[in-house]
Amino acid sequence: MAYQIDKFDCVGCCACIFACPFDVPTEIKEEHKVVIPEDKCVGCGQCEDICPVAAIHPAPGQRKIRKVTILEENCIGCTACARNCPANAINGTVKNPHVIDQRKCIQCGYCGTKCKKDAIVIEYLA
Ligand code: SF4
Ligand code: SF4
Ligand code: SF4
Questions:
Q1: Which atom of ligand 3 is nearest to the CA of 114?
Q2: Total number of domains constituting the chain
């Protein structure tokens, strides 16, 4: 699942390239367009928010995240989530439960792919 760029609407401004925390959107210089390689996109939607011509949309089946939290009782404090968070939104010390700072979290869900203990809880918009 990922986000997609409508190649007819894209004006090649590259705003999404700068907005993506994961360096996913790729410019096709010859075509003056940008594409999103599906296998690299984590579906955070930051690019959709920044695109000035509304050329970026969730792919079919891509759900928007509402909130991400850490289940204290499952977290062993391995730090994997914190080390991989692009927004530096996860606080905690080794072997102690970690906490997500909701003011910093961009709801990308990437931490959920790093946790081996099912401690990351992702809530989606309906
Ligand atoms: S949805 Fe997020 S990860 Fe995917 S291209 Fe857009 S900004 Fe990057
Ligand atoms: S969803 Fe997880 S990885 Fe993404 S910004 Fe929030 S805490 Fe960081
Ligand atoms: S990856 Fe999972 S277990 Fe490790 S610190 Fe983060 S929430 Fe806790």
A1: 1
A2: 2
* Per-residue pLDDT tens over the stretch 73-119: 999 999 999 999 999 999 999 999 999 999 999 999 999 999 999 99
The residue segments making up the domain with residue 74 are 65-124
Q: 89-102 pLDDT, tens per residue?
A: 999 999 999 999 99
Q: Whose CA is nearest to atom 6 of ligand 1?
A: 47
Q: For the residues of 3-72, what is the DSSP string, one character each?
A: EEE-TTT-----HHHHH-TT---EEEGGGTEEE--TTT-----HHHHH-TT--EEEPTTPPPEEEEEE-T
Q: Indicate whether 54 and 71 sit together in one domain.
A: no
> Final residue of a domain: which of 58, 74, 101?
58
Whether the CB of 47 sits within 6 Å of ligand 2: no
